[in-house]
């Protein structure tokens, strides 16, 4: 199998070409059926060491990466912030060098600050995979979203995607906007103006519109992606209350009627039911939220496989 | 002791001279200007400045020397050594030391340490408010008596317009300029780079240009009201340049400075998350950088100042969000000035000299400096506009600069403070000796 992306690190979607993205998705397709087997393990990455370095709490992403590594027979070690040396005043560089000295093949890193994977990649001999850096990117989330979309819509060109909610602080939105526009989809984003600044259109050259109103973004959409709202944004005066948010910016069945009949609904999780997404929407046939989680493992298997140069 | 600077070309904007001239120095003062055909004393040490430019000693209105309190980043001695190596004969350190320079004892200590080190002159800037906490006025009169030349809370700008108004009124009593780091923290807090397309692309929190401009406009209005002299530090946005231009046309006592990094780099330099591109105000987008260049060209911007802000390597080896703001600047400033201002034809050598010597001396009312007219202090910066050199070493304790490794044409070759040659470029000396 050819390496579909020509670098070992996966730092973000922004730096990938459309061909590289499709290559990762195709690789993920090949790994999908492993998770459906009774014995969910292949020897592909036997002898490889993968460190999951999580400076920020995460259950689903970390578990997904861990399962991906284990299903490929790699040795996976999890390091979380509470047990790391960073709290003892060690610099980021020292942490990276220390881990590097143990010769891992790949470091999967999540951090609350943008750019940490890029900084690590510069000094680490191991491949670095970004599992979410601050408000910058979350490339594997965008890839699993793409895999879910491709399953239902086959092609990306001409597809209309609405991304709703806290765009400003969302690494999921950024990675998805890069990915979808690179593959020829058009993206409309909407939400409270405090969280969806007009200047966001500058993120990509074409294919992105900031909608005036939520409904405008949803009309005729093939895909509706709703983002998790962080409760602490209320304290920083981005919106007054969660209940007002639910009424004006939440995805309800009524609003969803504006989308295409066969539109699918995505959410990166974890959901705040009754706030950004009504429960009946989350549990409807249109919702692909659990499929997203399922494809997450396949996408991460593909990314780990490609990052460690396996063949 | 006599020193004769011979065969050079003198540019002295305040003394209105731009010609070939020998300069005679005696007892730390300029004794006389001697035309090339005039006889020179035979008992003087001679500095051959053939092909070189003789300028009044350059004065950096904005540095951080970290002493007392943060000597692991810089000391007054290392900072002053870096200053003279960069062509600066005088530096004005900001008061954000530990403790804050908000009283005469610390002001005096800083000057004593500089005298002891014996490189550059140090003219401290006192705090506006006690501990720079923005609440009670610091003892400006006492600090001035001890040698302070201006007041500022620099990186902790006074949030309250009411306190700032009082500070300006009170500073006028002592003829102290109030230096203003313009930043409305309610707009910039949490930000680590310029807010714009690049901050979107990099996922870093932005500091809008507006945060600087709102504060600049507020303080220009206060200066109009109080009659105080305000000096706006490190102007970095189009709106601030425009506000200062307007204020000057109204005849207000408003001056300002720009840093080499703000006229040399834009926010694209942040790509890659190098923490040596993080400073406040941040590197702005190209539109703002061009406005700063325009301000330098048309005279709106009075001075070049470095905002030399040393930080230890370990402190910068952090996440972009967590790394401290600031970069060193003393030794790269003139190389960058030649590269972006002079060699591009934006300004002439005389204007460069003016922005680094006569204007800073005028802004902080430094008597007998910023000029070499006979009777002045013998602080001299000697430049070679054709010198090819690489910025690859530093006298500073810190190395936090994005400019390391850059090659320049034009820079300082010797620095004279109080009649003593305190810096001479090594490669230059060797080359000329051969």
Can you give a write-up of this model?
The complex is a heterodimer of chains A (311) and B (434). Chain A is of the alpha/beta class and 311 residues long. Chain A has two domains: 18-137 and 296-307, Rossmann fold (3-Layer(aba) Sandwich); 139-292, Rossmann fold. Chain A contains twelve helices and nine strands. Chain A has helices at residues 18-32, 60-71, 92-100, 116-123, 139-153, 171-182, 214-218, 232-235, 242-249, 253-256, 279-282, 289-307, and strands spanning 49-54, 75-80, 106-111, 127-133, 160-164, 186-190, 208-210, 223-226, 264-266. In chain A, the strands form two sheets. A five-stranded parallel beta sheet of chain A has the order 7-6-5-8-9. In chain A, helix 1 crosses helix 12 and helix 3 crosses helix 4. Chain A is globular and about 55 Å long. By secondary structure, chain B is an alpha/beta fold. Chain B folds into two domains: 2-54 and 376-433, Urease, subunit C, domain 1 (Roll); 57-363, TIM Barrel, CATH 3.20.20.140. Chain B contains 14 helices and 21 strands. Chain B has helices spanning 76-85, 104-117, 140-146, 161-173, 185-188, 197-202, 209-226, 238-249, 260-264, 286-298, 313-316, 333-342, 349-363, 426-433, and strands at residues 2-6, 9-12, 17-20, 22-26, 29-34, 45-48, 53-56, 58-63, 88-93, 121-122, 125-126, 150-152, 178-180, 193-194, 206-207, 230-232, 254-258, 303-304, 380-390, 407-417, 420-424. In chain B, the strands form five sheets. Chain B has a six-stranded mixed beta sheet. In chain B, helix 4 (161-173) crosses helix 7, helix 7 runs parallel beside helix 8 and helix 8 (238-249) packs parallel to helix 10 (286-298). Mean pLDDT of chain B is 96; it is low at 429-434. At the A-B interface, helix 3 and helix 4 of A face helix 6 of B.
């Amino acid at each position: 199998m050819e390496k579909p992306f020509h670098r070992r690190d996966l730092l973000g979607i922004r730096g990938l070409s459309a061909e590289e993205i499709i290559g990762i998705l195709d690789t993920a397709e090949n790994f999908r059926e492993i998770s459906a087997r009774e014995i969910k393990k292949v020897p592909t990455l036997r002898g490889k060491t993968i460190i999951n370095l999580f400076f920020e709490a995460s259950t689903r992403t970390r578990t997904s990466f861990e399962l991906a590594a284990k299903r490929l027979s790699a040795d996976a070690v999890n390091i979380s912030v509470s047990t790391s040396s960073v709290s003892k005043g060690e610099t980021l560089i020292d942490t990276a060098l220390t881990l590097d000295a143990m010769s891992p093949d790949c470091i999967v890193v999540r951090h609350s600050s943008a750019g940490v994977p890029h900084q690590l990649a510069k000094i680490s001999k191991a491949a670095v995979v970004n599992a979410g850096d601050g408000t910058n990117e979350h490339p594997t989330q965008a890839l699993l979203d793409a895999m879910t979309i491709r399953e239902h819509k086959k092609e990306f060109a001409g597809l209309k995607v609405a991304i709703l909610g806290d765009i400003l602080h969302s690494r999921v939105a950024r990675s998805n906007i890069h990915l979808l526009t690179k593959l020829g989809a058009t993206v409309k984003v909407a939400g409270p103006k405090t969280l969806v600044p007009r200047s966001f259109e500058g993120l990509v050259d074409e294919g992105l519109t900031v909608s005036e109103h939520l409904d405008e973004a949803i009309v005729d959409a093939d895909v509706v992606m709703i983002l998790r709202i962080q409760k602490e944004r209320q304290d920083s005066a981005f919106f007054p209350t969660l209940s007002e948010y639910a009424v004006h910016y939440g995805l309800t069945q009524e609003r969803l009627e504006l989308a295409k009949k066969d539109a699918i609904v995505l959410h990166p999780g974890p959901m705040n039911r009754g706030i950004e997404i009504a429960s009946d929407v989350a549990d409807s046939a249109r919702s692909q939220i659990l499929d997203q989680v399922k494809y997450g493992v396949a996408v991460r298997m593909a990314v780990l496989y490609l990052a460690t140069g396996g063949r | 002791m006599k020193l004769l600077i011979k065969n050079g070309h003198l540019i002295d904007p305040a003394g209105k001279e731009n010609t070939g001239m020998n300069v005679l120095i005696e007892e730390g003062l300029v004794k006389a200007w001697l035309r090339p055909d005039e006889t020179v004393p035979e008992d003087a040490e001679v500095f051959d400045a053939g092909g070189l430019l003789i300028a009044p000693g350059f004065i950096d209105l904005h540095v951080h020397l970290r002493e007392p309190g943060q000597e692991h980043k810089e000391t007054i001695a290392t900072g002053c050594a870096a200053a003279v190596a960069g062509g600066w004969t005088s530096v004005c350190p900001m008061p954000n030391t530990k403790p804050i320079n908000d009283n005469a004892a610390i002001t005096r200590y800083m000057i004593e340490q500089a005298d002891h080190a014996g490189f550059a002159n140090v003219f401290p800037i006192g705090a506006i408010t006690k501990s720079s906490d923005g609440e009670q006025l610091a003892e400006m009169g006492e600090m001035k008596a001890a040698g302070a030349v201006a007041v500022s809370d620099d990186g902790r700008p006074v949030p309250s317009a009411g306190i700032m108004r009082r500070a300006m009124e009170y500073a006028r009593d002592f003829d102290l300029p109030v230096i203003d780091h313009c930043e409305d923290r309610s707009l910039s807090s949490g930000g680590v780079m310029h807010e714009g397309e690049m901050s979107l692309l990099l996922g870093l929190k932005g500091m809008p240009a507006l945060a600087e401009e709102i504060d600049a406009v507020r303080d220009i209005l206060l200066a109009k009201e109080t009659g105080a002299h305000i000096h706006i530090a490190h102007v970095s946005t189009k709106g601030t340049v425009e506000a200062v231009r307007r204020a000057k046309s109204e005849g207000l006592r408003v001056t300002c400075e720009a840093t080499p990094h703000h006229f040399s780099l834009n926010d694209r330099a942040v790509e890659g998350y190098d923490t040596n591109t993080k400073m406040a105000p941040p590197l702005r987008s190209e539109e703002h950088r061009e406005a700063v260049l325009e301000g330098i060209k048309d005279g709106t911007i009075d001075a070049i100042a470095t905002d030399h802000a040393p930080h230890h390597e370990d402190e910068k080896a952090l996440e972009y969000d967590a790394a401290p703001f600031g970069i060193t600047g003393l030794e790269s400033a003139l190389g960058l000035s030649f590269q972006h201002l002079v060699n591009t034809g934006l300004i002439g050598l005389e204007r460069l000299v003016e922005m680094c010597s006569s204007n800073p001396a005028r802004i902080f009312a430094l008597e007998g400096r910023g000029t070499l007219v006979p009777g002045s202090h013998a602080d001299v910066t000697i430049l070679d506009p054709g010198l090819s050199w690489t910025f690859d070493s530093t006298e500073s304790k810190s190395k936090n600069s994005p400019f390391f490794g850059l090659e320049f044409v034009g820079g300082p070759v010797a620095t004279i403070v109080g009649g003593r040659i305190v810096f001479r470029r090594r490669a230059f000396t060797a080359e000329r000796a051969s």
